[in-house]
Amino acid sequence: MARELLKGNEAIAEAAIRAGLQAYFGYPITPQTELLEWMAHRMPELGRAFVQAESELGAINMVYGAACTGARVMTSSSSPGISLMMEGLSYIAATEVPAVLVDVMRGGPGLGNIAPAQSDYNQMVHGGGHGDYHTIVLAPATIQEAIDLTVLAFDLAEKYRSIAVVLLDGSLGQMMEPAELPPMRPVRQTFPAWAATGAAGRERNVLTSIYLDPPKEEEANLRLLRRWQEIQANEVRFREYFMEDARFVVVGFGSAGRVALSAVRQARAEGIPVGLLRPISLSPFPTRQIAALCERAEAFLVVEMNAGQMLEDVRLAVNGKRPVEFYGRMGGVMPFPDEILGEIRRLAAGEASFEGHPRDRWLQRLTGSN
Amino acid sequence: MVVEQIVPEEIVYQRPRSLVECATHYCPGCTHGVAHRIIAEVIDEMGLREHTIGVASVGCSVFAYNYFDFDWVQAPHGRAPAMATGVKRVLPDRMVITYQGDGDMASIGMTEVVHAAARGENITVFFINNANYGMTGGQMAPTTLPGQKTTSSPHGRDVELAGYPIRASELLATLEGAAYVVRRSLHDPKNIRLAKKAVRTALEVQRQGLGFSMVEMLSICPTNWGMSPNQALQWLAEKMIPYYPVGDYRVSPSVAQLKV
Amino acid sequence: MQTEIIIAGFGGQGVLFAGQLLAYAAMDEGREVTWIPSYGPEMRGGTANCTVIIADEEIGSPLVRHPAAVIAMNLPSLDKYEALIQPGGVLVVNASMVNRKPARGDLRAVMVPGNEIAEAMGDRRMTNMVLLGALLVNLPVLPVEAVERALEAHLPARHHRLLPLNFQCLRKGAEFVAETVR
Question: Which segments constitute the Pyruvate/ketoisovalerate oxidoreductase catalytic domain (chain C) (predicted)?
Fold first, then answer.
């Protein structure tokens, strides 16, 4: 297949279709609407299911229903819409049915704005719905990665009977880059044995999230947890840049990660031995890999388009062994590389600190410079 | 000792194949059992057991899936019509039913049912209206009658503060996508027979792909109403039916031509 | 090594399309490229802009504070972006829509009466092509021919009758060689 110039939202939609998507349910919200529009056009033409739901609540429960048949199914939304979907996500996780969710994040909290942000990290990675459950969260930084991770999301969701989330910010959804789409996979014609498809010639299947008997519910929780351990062992993904001799490490995901790449290149040009670790699976998080870096890294810098959400996971991984600094932009503002370069220079100048919390130090620098 | 031989032909009444052989958790006298039975009978009669997927709701009927012997999924509170939409769109040749109470469908799930009906979603909703929230212990529902005492309207529903009950069938009947919307009552054998016939029509509507169908069934809740089952049946006939008249609220032209 | 271009103007001036065309041309030449539209309240504010980055390696940030080149199709765009261009960068101004010349002396700037030229060529909607031609002759990132090939390859067939006019407008714009303003 040749490279095509593709817009993030549309590339994800087409990648999902080529991965054998059988049903899409969604509700319009900027900045992911092109994804829904692409589905509205393509799914019916392929004889597959498309419904514009009455709300995100409706959409996620349609996904829930379709997922119970074992079909490849997805929805997409943006931050406020994802908040509304949290009920369904908890139920889907508890029922152990596979589903894919795309979250094209925007500025918040509240109605916020339609500009790019990464402030759904906690809601997706640490669970916004009730109960003990985990979702697989994959964070692309390029259109090609968005395509590849969308396809992977379906495979992982089915392998682990789990929710797989593709988490990106609005800038990647709206951006165009050359990328290659995968070949069209045939739509699966069979249904898994556990699915609710009509009890023809077999015992009935009942898919539920209720375990009224507490020991049974505990057992279900343990089953989810063990599966999560398996996912943690097998599905950690990340990418490293300039790490061979790095004494300073920048950690950033998605768009913040790629902005940081520009800054790291500029810092390298200045002779600063800095590298970039870009987590691709935010959940499971590359905790062990970051912990291992403490052996040779002098200090870490976490860059995010939020107030320091992944920061806490990096701090847990570093576990006080090295200083961690933070730089963030919020509310839909994307950082420019020079802002991050300034932070890298601070690290190189030995200004990284153990004192207090990195977020507090960042806020102090922020207000001090304003 | 006289041994009587029972030949199969003599069985005139037995558990429908579509009902599981077990005791239900419903209170004595509750009409959920009646509703379950007529639905199961119709599914048997139409030969649909192996092709039906039920969507259970939240409320007393939350465990409906324990009693019907076919595939079920369990929806979050009020979302059964959305979930049913998801199932039906992937499996359009299967029968998809929801079984919802009045709190589930007419309060928290009003959006989902209205839009499923508006889309003409080819599903069947069985709507059990017993004028209160049964599962949580008899609170005021959107269907609680004016003046009716519940645990959350202890002095009787005050319409000045709590507004008026919602007539869901009449409301849904205004939607073009709805093909068959009727109200029946489960308070006596004659009405139960009429209800069963409506269940049959509704499922036939779905089988033929004619659009959204709903059968509202007026039901009793003796425990939470604080009445004996007989008193409750009488109360339904005397108090509920005047506010919720039994009748056909929407029968689309294509449904009118159906021979059931 | 990368080259960053911002194209800015009013909505309807073909700003986003000109940027996409550049991106297509870069892709077809085997380069790495990003195209990102203006994002945020401006989307509905009557002005539009996009950033195109062309590079030979994986592109980091899709946005830059200081671009190598700017096409300013109206006065607000000139006012906003002139100060941000890298020293020695290229500034192409749609002279038809501004009432002043660039003020900076460290740029290679060129004033192109885009609207008049496009109108004279027969279609005012081609203003963006005229200015794109002027950009490419002054910025060694892609040859004009690459953009022409991209038009031919990616313009839907139903618009192919417009190809000759597009080419003419690109070429006309390419006659405007920038000089350092001083």
Answer: 11-175
- Looking at residue C43, its pLDDT comes to 43
Total Cβ atoms within 10 A of residue C109: 25
Rounded CA gap, C8 and A320, in Å? 47
Domains assigned to chain A: 4-234 (3.40.50.970), 238-369 (3.40.50.920)
User: What pLDDT is recorded for position A195?
Assistant: 98
* Contacts A175 to C, Cβ<8 Å: 34-36, 62
**Interface mutation target, options A21, A62, A92, A203, chain B, most CBs of B under 10 Å:** A62
What residue spans define the domains of chain B? 21-256
- The answer to whether the CB atoms of A115 and C34 lie below 8 A apart is no
Minimum distance, in Å, between the CA of residue C117 and any CA atom of chain A: 30
* pLDDT single digits (tens) A78-128: 999 999 999 999 999 999 999 999 999 999 999 999 999 999 999 999 988
CA contacts within 13 A on the Cβ side of A183: 3
Task: Name the β-bridge partners of A303.
Answer: A327
- Contact at CB, B86 and A197, closer than 8 angstroms: no
Q: Report the interhelical angle of C144-154 vs C127-138 (nearest 10°).
A: 140
Contacts of A58 in chain B (CB under 8 A): 79, 82, 85, 111-112, 115
List beta partners, residue A100: A74, A164
Topology of domain B21-256 in CATH is Rossmann fold (3.40.50)
pLDDT in tens, B58-102: 999 998 999 999 999 999 999 999 999 999 999 999 999 999 999
Q: Which residues of A touch C40 (CB under 8 A)?
A: 113-115, 332
Instruction: Determine the Cα angle at B100 with ends B99 and B105, to 5°.
Output: 145
Fold of C2-180: Pyruvate-ferredoxin Oxidoreductase; domain 3 (3.40.920)
pTM here is 0.94
Mean of pLDDT values over A44-50 = 98
